[in-house]
Amino acid sequence: MMNMNRRQVIAGMGGIAAAAIAGLPVRAQAKTLVVPTLGGAWEQFWRQTLAPAFTQKSGAQVTLDAGNGRVWSANLRAAGPQKPPYSILMTNEAFASSLRKEGFFEKLDLTKLPNYNDLYPLAKKTDGWGAVAMVSPIGLAYRTDMVQTPPKGWKDLWDNPEFKGRIGLYNFANTAGKMELMLASKIFGKDQYDVDAGFRALEKLGPVIQADFNLSTGIASGEFVVAPFDFGEVARLRNQGLPIDVIVPDEGLLMFDQTINILANGAEKDLAYQYADFLLSPESQLPLMKQFFVSPTNAKVVVPDDLKKDVPISGEVMDKILTWDWDFMNEKQAGFAETWAKIMK
What we know:
Residues 1-30 form the signal peptide. It holds the Pfam family SBP_bac_8. This is Putative spermidine/putrescine transport system substrate-binding protein. By secondary structure, this protein is α+β, with helices and mostly antiparallel strands. It folds into two domains: 32-135 and 256-312, D-Maltodextrin-Binding Protein, domain 2 (3-Layer(aba) Sandwich); 137-254 and 326-343, 3-Layer(aba) Sandwich (D-Maltodextrin-Binding Protein, domain 2). Helices cover 41% and strands 17% of the residues. The chain has helices spanning 6-22, 26-29, 41-58, 69-79, 93-101, 156-159, 175-188, 195-204, 216-221, 231-239, 269-279, 282-292, 326-343, and strands at residues 32-38, 61-67, 88-91, 131-143, 168-170, 209-211, 226-230, 244-247, 254-262, 295-296. Strands 3, 4, 7, 8, 9 and 10 form a six-stranded antiparallel sheet that branches.
């Protein structure tokens, strides 16, 4: 046990007394939960809104670790499954799937997640290993001032001559790029696993403009006129005055998901479950929807009338979001990346 001097003991007792006076749980007040979060506006919102709300609810402090799925995965692998730097991780299922197979996560104790029961079926597709807290649905966006015939489905990328040489796509490094490949395989082949058919179809698109994270600059400048876009980003661009719209394609929607996972050997597992249930609750999902135009995964959250244009994907429409076999993609992605680089000029 670490030795403590008289001053440290007194300081610790003072902190406990202050917690008691404030009416906060003494045990939780002494704890801190490390929360990985996206940077930029996401980190700011967590710091100013969600983290203080969780502290008020639980009495625990929150330390934010801004990054992304690639960074957090690297941090976890560097530390190993037995001593992870986090107790909870919310990230794309593409990353969570790999980490799950490597033994980092535990199957969820649903008795500690009462809000899990209120989630849409889409949010519970990992057989109890994860829970999707929010979704950014991805449809097909287009410049309304530069396209005469609006698209109705993904196939229009191939069939509409207006789009030839004017298409934007996420590159393969982005999870959306991998979804684009599986989508093309599903549409033009037998299923999502028929990647030979998918690559043949993508090659027929001809030259496309690729981006890792940001397609907004390209469509705003008119470098391309049609591309996969999440509905929240389209709402932001439209509210800034860009003539843009987005459709729900006939073949279904893609999505950026944020799946909650509990680290099997996390230092603050009980606190992690409290935080997970907090994220799955309407009290968290409603402000997230208002701030980022994401689609809530808790079916009890009702989209207000003034937000329905910017958050049109909810209720029964959630069933139109496609899901993918990320174990398959992650296992084969190195070879797929090489093929992508050869054919996607």
